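Troubleshooting log. The previous structure file for this entry was overwritten by mistake, so regenerating from the original sequence record. Sequence copied from the archived sheet and checked twice against the printout by T.R.
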Amino acid sequence: MKITPLFLPTLALAGLSLFVGTTAQAVDLTGAGATFPNPIYTKWFSEYKKVDAAANFNYQAIGSGGGQKQILEGTVDFGASDGPMSDESLAKAPGKILHIPTVAGAVAITYNLPGVTSLKLDGPTLADIYLGKITKWDDAAIAKLNQGAKLPATPIAVAHRADGSGTSYIFTDYLSTVSSEWKDKVGKNTTVKWPAGIGGKGNDGVAGLVKQTAGAIGYVELIYAVQIKLPVADLKNADGAFVKPSLEGITAATATATIPDDFRFSMVNAPGKDSYPISGVTWLLVYEQQKDAAKGKAMVAFLKWALTEGEKQAKALDYAPLPDAVQKKVLARIETIKF
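Regenerated output below.
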């Protein structure tokens, strides 16, 4: 059969249409923010490629303060933060920002004290260390909590975050809860004026400072202490029990949390004999009204996967998945995202 030139463009267009219909269009999603959940987010972004090979995630772990700033400025498609955005910050946004809780984690108190393999601390003592009032490891307040332990007269080297940090928010939220002096003089925020110590960038930066400095104490998300094999302190919780940071302790704290409709909540110093006192949730920050339809559709699909299949990967990385009841509420909120 002879094909006349008249039909060639039609056949060419049909072939092009068939090709486009069977090839997924790549979607690039950029994000920035918290280092606290970076290990699990890195895992999720990698695993999600097996679900949707066209979804490309570029996430920069620059700290929660940076994540909040960039989502406000619209320079990223999503932010990440371990501290909720303030009413003042949300009012500056060009649209409604949703807080999507993903997993819960523990802020571990880690230390470098040669010869000491077990350490107990309570909230007021920890606050006094970070206030610069307790400066040596054999201080009476620390010795009282660790009777029988041989504590050296080593000076305490306080390590804290140098960048805007959700981990700092959770930590200072806790200190503000257990110490009226800390609450009045320093307060809680992603960035505070630290009374003592030296700063490191990111959770890994603080962990590195503790690792390389004899006599150091610092606060990091649990996985960072686990990865470089730093010891962690037992903390006295609201019920008077000494507990180590653990999945069980995080889950117990999460179970007692009062969660408002906008999902901005605190769970530090939670009641319950098993609750770990410096526990917190981490959020992804997304606009309810997505400007780019393709990106919005891809983001919603990823969030649904993360809150279901992704949650199953949390425990292996020392994060606690959200309780089922909370997960259902968050999934319902994701459905309100428009694109």
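Residues 293-308 form the longest helix (16 residues). Archived copy saved in two places this time.
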